[in-house]
Amino acid sequence: MVRSKLRVGLSLCAAFAAALAVAFGVPAAAPARAATILEKNFWMPGPDYSRDLPSCEYHPALDRIIRDFRTKENRFWNSELQIVGFENIHEIDAMPWAAQAIPRRYCGGTAVISDSSKHAVYYSIAEDDGMIGIDWGVNFCVVGLDRNDAYGPQCRAAQP
Predict the structure, then answer these.
(1) Looking at residues 72-92, what average pLDDT do you find?
(2) What is the pLDDT of residue 2?
(3) CA geometry: angle at 105 spanning 48 and 112, to 5°?
(4) What residues does 111 pair with on adjacent strands?
(5) Is 97 helix (H, G, I), strand (E, B) or coil?
(6) pTM to 2 decimals?
(7) If you average pLDDT over residues 87-116, what whole number do you get?
(8) What's the pLDDT score for residue 99?
(9) Could you tell me the CA-to-CA distances from 54 to 83, 93, 96, 136 in Å, in that order?
(10) How far is the C-alpha of 107 from the C-alpha of 104, rounded, in Å?
(11) To 10 degrees, the CA torsion angle through 61, 64, 66, 67?
(12) In angstroms, how far is the first alpha carbon of the chain from the final one?
């Protein structure tokens, strides 16, 4: 009894999948083809950037740098260092590449660290580059505290 219900359910699922394939124009052998009108217009709109980038002094971006730096230092380097403030924040470049690229604003400044030292900081604010593409994304590097050289010498890869 249970097996017959399972077979009927599987048969219905297979029939439904076949009907969807026919409705959306998916051939059985699936040779290379152009996208259908539904594929072109359904959840595949391409980049649609507003190009309205916040300034370098955008507080949520600076707060994210402070939070992420503290997390990185504490979790990965067993360090109590924290960024306690910023000085001389300025724009280095905005959207330095082609029009189709993700809009970014490159910024620089000085990070004041909890041990009273000051280090150059470079960061970028990118549109739709945050968590699952919802908000602004922020990438940063603090010169002298990029312990694994993820951004290269003197944080070169964090700059335009």
Answers:
(1) 95
(2) 46
(3) 140
(4) 86, 119
(5) coil
(6) 0.68
(7) 88
(8) 66
(9) 21, 13, 16, 9
(10) 10
(11) 170
(12) 67
